[in-house]
Design brief:
26% strand, Alpha-Beta Plaits, alpha+beta, 7 helices, 7-stranded antiparallel β-sheet, 35% helix, 181 residues
Length: 181
C-alpha cells in the first residue's frame, strides 16, 4: 500500500527568476476551491513535479499567489501530496537547473514520531535537512486536542490543524537562510 505525505514546495528568489519558474510550472492559483489540473496545466506542471505530486491521494497540486518576502525577493508556495518518499532528491535535481532559486521542501507524514514532520533547504544541488523534534510534535498534537481518533473520523480536524502548525514550523526554520541574497 502506498504511503502519502502532505507537502509543500517553497520557491524563493529574485522576482524575475520566480516568475520564470512559475510560468514553467504552470500551476493555477487556488482561489475558492481546489480543483484538479486541466490537461494543459498538467502537462506544464509535469516539467517540475512528479506524477504522484500532480494528482495526490485526495488532493491535487495547487499553489498560492506569490508574495514579496524581503527586499528584491519573491516567494511562491506549491501544495501537494507525495507518495512513498518525501521527494527531496527530486527537488535536488531540479535545483541544479535553477541555481538562482532556493527551495524549501516541507513534508508532514501521518504519525507522531521524530520522522513525521520536517523540511529540506535545497540550493544548487545541495540539501540541508531539519526534523521537527518529537517534543514539539507531541506539544502541537496536545495543543490541538489530537487523540487516537477513536471514532475514525475523516477528515479529523484537530490533526489537520496540528499538522498545518508543524509544517509551518518546519518551513519557518529556514526563514533566515531564505532572506539572504
Amino acid at each position: 500500500m502506498t504511503s502519502w505525505c502532505n507537502a509543500r514546495l517553497v520557491v524563493v528568489g529574485r522576482p524575475t527568476d520566480v516568475t520564470r519558474f512559475r510560468y514553467l510550472a504552470g500551476v493555477p492559483v487556488a482561489l475558492r476551491g481546489v480543483t484538479r489540473l486541466t490537461p494543459s496545466a498538467g502537462v506544464r506542471a509535469s516539467r517540475v513535479f512528479r506524477g504522484d505530486m500532480l494528482v495526490g491521494e485526495v488532493q491535487g497540486l495547487f499553489c498560492e499567489r506569490a508574495t514579496r518576502i524581503g527586499k528584491g525577493l519573491l516567494k511562491k508556495i506549491y501544495l501537494f501530496q507525495a507518495s512513498d518518499e518525501d521527494g527531496q532528491e527530486h527537488f535536488r535535481d531540479l535545483s541544479r537547473l535553477w541555481p538562482t532559486l532556493r527551495f524549501v521542501y516541507v513534508y508532514g507524514w501521518d504519525g507522531w514520531n521524530e520522522y513525521s514532520y520536517g523540511s529540506h533547504l535545497i540550493c544548487g544541488g545541495h540539501i540541508r535537512s531539519y526534523r521537527v523534534p518529537i517534543r514539539l510534535v507531541e506539544k502541537a498534537m496536545a495543543k490541538h486536542g489530537v487523540d487516537d481518533n477513536p471514532n475514525d473520523e475523516w477528515p479529523y480536524q484537530p490533526e489537520i490543524d496540528a499538522e498545518a502548525e508543524l509544517m509551518d514550523l518546519a518551513e519557518a526554520h529556514w526563514k533566515e537562510s531564505l532572506l539572504r541574497k
